[in-house]
Amino acid sequence: MQAELAPGPPAWARLIARTVIARRTVRKSVRSAVLWGYVFGITVVSSAVSYAGIYKTAAERRQLEVAFGHNLAAGALFGPARQLQDVAGFTVFKSSMTVMVIGAVWGLLTSTRLLRGEEDAGRWELLASGETDLAGAATQGLCGLAVAACVVWALTAVAVVAVGRWSLHVGAPAAVYFATALTAGAALFLGFGALTSQLAASRRQAASYAGVVLGVSYGLRMVGDAVSGLHWLVWLSPLGWVEQLRPLTAPQPWAFAPIVGATLLSAWAAVCLAGRRDVGGSTLADRSSRVPRLGLLSGPLAFTLRLARPAVTWWACVLAASGVLLGTVAKASGTTIVGSSVRQVFSRLGATGSGAAAFLGVAFVILAMVVAFQAVAHVATARREEVEGRALHLLAGPVSRSGWFGAWLAVATGSLVLSCLVAGAASWAGVALQGARAGFWSVMAAGVNMLAPSIFVMGAGTLAFGVLPRATVPVMYAVLGWSALVDLVAGFTPQSHWVLDTSLFHHMAAAPAVGVDWKADGIVVGAGVLMALVGWRGLLRRDLQLG
Amino acid sequence: MTGTSLSAVHIEGLSKFYGDVGALVDLDLDVAPGEVVGYLGPNGAGKTTTIRLLLGLARATAGRAEVFGVDCQRRPVEAHRRLAFVPGEANLWPELTGAETLHVLGQVHGRVDEAYRNRLVERFDLDTSKKVRAYSKGNRQKVLLVAALTTRADLLVLDEPTSGLDPLMEQAFRASVAEARDRGQTIFLSSHVLSEVEALCDRVAILRQGRLVESGTLDQMRRLSAVSVEARFAGRVPDLSGLEGVDGAVVEGGVLRASVSGRIEPFLAVIAQAGVSRLVVREPSLEELFLALYGESPQQPEAVPASAG
Q1: In the predicted model, is pLDDT for residue B306 greater than 60?
Q2: Nearest chain A residue (CA) to B16
Q3: Among B53, B93, B109, B133, which would you mutate to test the A interface (most chain A Cβ atoms within 10 Å of its Cβ)?
């Protein structure tokens, strides 16, 4: 006799069950989507507003056009400069490449985290065992990512339409076109990240593959833009396709065709591959075995260095590349710091004088924000080691908490010092390549000068790690975000010194435009060390947190 | 040397509260050197909390815990030099291979019996050239077991060490624990696998809602608890209602099953008079003891009143 089956769940319950991965992906990506949507919007607004504030006279705008209009180095780095005498042209030139690259990085990191990362953590298996199969699960994940991309686009569009009306003097359709062009890189690399998540065997590997695509794409575009006769290379580069949209200056909507095509093709391939491979497996053959490499496995400090080595290398490369880029454009940019309004903005940011040194002074303040972000990343990694239970294997052995966390702080500090030195040396090399004059030691000192804010951020993170561990990352982002906001806004609008004093970067001398203020650096570092000591004490007294 | 320092593990009045919630309340426990102690309790009973306090990973609200006389809360590193730990969740560094993981854990501990490690790797059938991310849960657990066993630490603290292991590997684990016991190592084994505890442990401690409810050797616990009896009758099954010490009596097809605690003579007299044709008396298994402590009994056929038929 056949047992009577219970009636199935109602249709609405089945719909909920069939969209659980999509909704979860939206939930896990929407926060960063909102953040970056705002950042992109603010970037466009600040570019437009700063142009109006800095280059007030026709003479200053002409100077800008002369400096960048036919500057191959600047074109290679930021894309072709068109109509720089016009606020719309400047805004496109100033913000497009930066937003496009940041959007692409966000896209590839988000999709690999939410597709491959969830699989690595073992959660995908559980989610995909519901009312779906592996291809369906990937489809749901992609739908969730599409919603995140729409959020980024919508927030950017709101800001661009608003600034388009008041500052750029363009209509809503043109502004929406610009916002779409700005966020097209994010959409493309969400797709590429989804595809590499199916090809690779781990999240890190998937992100690396997509990162290589981004690097090659940027390189091809750079060569295509800089070398006459090789412009066709731009059409081999996904970033080149986005560049060819030419918003606000000479729109080419048909360039959307390869962008949409590549995004959809990547998504379709990702779904197909997801349905054909095993959970936890990879499409490309994975080297899951190797001869043991026993270097840097001899104790807590060496082992921490081994764990952090990829991140240390990555950050050093980022700072080196940024240093070269900024050094390369320093000479041309320096020549635009001529009018009184331009000088006023630079001097509010701490950089007096003119020329390459003044430009580098402000550039190093901005690079210091990147270095402080690196400090956040290192402390956040230590926190993950604790929560995910890996630190337990050391701390249940004869390794003290001081030894374990001290190793992380030592490696993080070493990594920050390395990044600062590399940024200094690379900037000097960039300046030298352009035939400009800048003292090697003064630029290196400017690099070392970036260390103090990052040590403070690390100290604040350590304080939270010891006393209120769940707040470790938010506290560091709060300190960094507030300081960056106050300092950047102060460049364009006068601020009370009470407000300015709350910014870490306000206490940092804009070297090499001015001499390094070692005393101020010492006080900032001292405050960071003090916080770290309090946090350290808290760490020794609290429970280890797992799971 | 004090009496306390003679114990491999000495726990006295140990408590851990999260706000008003007591995860562990006033625990007293001693483990002698060379002893194998099973630590049992349902989920949330406080087993893992005890182990974290014992390792100094969590701070005690009250009481003390010592390993070979070393205060685990105040001098955890010194205590850790005498022990090796295997957690239930095997979260390892995914980019390292098994061999690299064993190497780093050995280096951190400072002492490794390499020959024994090679034997264990073979016994557990572990491919150490693979990266951890390519390992199954069971293989990751094997890495941690091999790492802990090869330290030859005086005390092995094992928290659900066989979760994810297949039956063959479970046998390999039992053989390894038996070797450690024969070498005089002390083993503190928290486990849900009662057959494993029954096979390996000299003594059992049972936790319930953060409190120790039973502790002793299995023989001691069996003596204090009821025996299971099964009696077959040719004729009518006698009425056992009102007979002191008889519980859970069920009758099925002329067979009576019951548990009898305390003196068994009155029970024997009644069934002898009723003409018992076959009698089996069995000591309770650890599972039966464990379930009895939690107010449940092993699965039995549908109960029929003993006076019936």
Answers
A1: no
A2: A543
A3: B133
Best of B67, B104, B129 to substitute, by most chain A Cβ atoms within 10 angstroms, is: B104
Q: What is the pLDDT of residues A385-439, one digit of tens each?
A: 999 899 999 999 999 999 999 999 999 999 999 999 999 999 999 899 888 778 8
Question: Would you say residue A456 lies in a domain?
Answer: yes
B110 close to A (CB below 8 A)? yes
CB of A530 within 8 Å of a chain B CB? The answer is no
- State which of B184, B217, B250 marks the end of a domain: B217
- pLDDT one-digit tens code per residue, B94-121: 889 999 999 999 999 988 999 999 999 9
Contacts with B255 (C-beta within 8 Å, 6 or more apart), sequence order = B230, B231, B232, B233
DSSP B238: P
- Reported as a pLDDT band with limits 50, 70 and 90, residue A3 is low
Domain limits at B56? 4-217
Domain finish residue from B191, B217, B243: B217
Residues in chain B within 8 Å Cβ distance of A123? none
Instruction: Indicate the residue type of A49.
Output: V
Q: Is the distance from CB of B150 to CB of B178 less than 8 angstroms?
A: no
Given CB atoms, is A393 within the 8 Å cutoff of chain B? yes
**Reduced DSSP (H G I as helix, E B as strand, rest coil) percent helix, strand, coil of chain B, to 5:** 35, 30, 40
- DSSP tag of A5: P
Assess A398–B contact: CB distance below 8 Å, yes or no: yes
In total, how many domains does chain B have?
Answer: 2
Q: Read off the pTM.
A: 0.81
B84 touches A: beta carbon within 8 Å:
yes
Residue A378 is part of which domain span? 298-547
